[in-house]
Amino acid sequence: MAISSNMLFGTLYFTFISAIILPAAHHHVQGKLTPNFYDEVCPQALPTIQVMVATAVTFKPRIGASLVRLHFHDCFVNGCDGSVLLDDSPTIVGEKTAGPNNNSVGGFDFIDEIKATLNVVCFGNVVSCADILAVAARDSVVALGGNSYDVLLGRRDSTNASRDDANSNIPSPVSDLSDILAKFEAHNLSAEDLVLLSGAHTLGYAKCKLFRDRIYNETATIDADFASALKAKCPKAVGSGDDELSSLDETPAAFDSGYYQMLTRNKGLLHSDQQLFKGDGSEIDGLVKRYSEDAGAFTEGFGAAMVRMGSISPLTGDEGEIRENCRVVNRP
Ligand code: HEM
Ligand SMILES: *[C@@H]1O[C@H](CO)[C@@H](O)[C@H](O)[C@H]1NC(C)=O
Ligand SMILES: *[C@@H]1O[C@H](CO)[C@@H](O)[C@H](O)[C@H]1NC(C)=O
Ligand SMILES: *[C@@H]1O[C@H](CO)[C@@H](O)[C@H](O)[C@H]1NC(C)=O
Ligand SMILES: *[C@@H]1O[C@H](CO)[C@@H](O)[C@H](O)[C@H]1NC(C)=O
Question: 188-308 belongs to which homologous superfamily?
Answer without folding.
Answer: Peroxidase, domain 2 (1.10.420.10)
